[in-house]
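[audit] Reproducing an earlier prediction to check determinism. Same input, same settings, fresh worker. If the tokens differ from the archived copy the diff job will pick it up downstream; this log only records the rerun itself.
[audit] input (356 residues):
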Amino acid sequence: MNCIEWKDDHIRIIDQTKLPLSLEYIDCFDLETLGEAIRHLSIRGAPALGIAGAFGIALAAVKADVKTTNQLIPLLWEAKFFLASLRPTAANLCWAMDRMLKITTDFNGDVNALKYALISEAKIIASEDKRTCRLIGAFGSKVIKDGYNILHHCNTGFLATGEYGTALGVIRSAYYEGKKIHVWVNETRPLLQGARLTAWELSQDRIPYTLISDNVAGFLMKQGKVDVVVVGADRITSHGDVANKIGTYSIAVLAKYHNVPFYVAAPFSTIDFNIESGDAIVIEERPAYEVTCIKDVPVAPLDAPVYNPAFDVTPAELVTGIITERGIISPPYLENLKKSLSAQLTHACDEMEGGA
């Protein structure tokens, strides 16, 4: 199942705000509808937002009533700035849109050829994400042993990616390999992505799980009932600091105290080599009603002062390893992330020379 796909001349997404009670779709025929879907978390998860950004640029191109590439390109940049402003923490969103816009550099065809090229590139980005997540799952399953109890936070499955999942992809791979595992699913307040989405995904795959409130995690670790923590990421710095769903930092601190390995699973596109420290990551703040209400039902005074950051930052020293499509990267992260990047660039250059 795909949470987002290109359909002829528009984008179709699963409306994740309706889950788990109903499976409904949103058809985005214009950028404004896609923007509302992103803003209201009908589509969410860093890799899925990357695909949404790529499809968004393609959609802007398809809907543009222009006759030349010179007229089209400024509209594509406007689309990028609009979409990027909606979810500033997720690295994959801008990464994908920047990749799309590179196609416009020195493009030699007419406007229709450019539109076709953009649609094709967006589809490639979506397809690559599927392969990337399966590689993450294959590498990450090595840290999951038979009989493990795994703690997971937020949602990192096919609803957050192109198809398979990052941290949930690791869990899926371990389960498909025949390992007898069990997942502790944090409910993930305030929007309950764990309760609404992750529990639903695990139920679909018949993977054993137990739903817990977020404040149970430490007690489970004290009892020795958590063998490993695997979470996703929305942005990772060059030094290995990790921005992820709010509450991740607390889990990492608890895991460190209780000697529980803490792994982060994310595609390499989530790593921002332009940022060294997690302090430089822009943390999105969400509306107050997400805390004062649950599904429009008030659970606090509606005029209560609210601080609602969507993400927090886990320092690199709390991270056991970063699971990517290029393998599991261990500390020191600055050195080893750069090595992995250099190896990939060298491989790409060799392929280009071989093709020539």
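[audit] rerun output stored. Observation attached for the diff report: The two ends are 38 Å apart (CA to CA).
[audit] end
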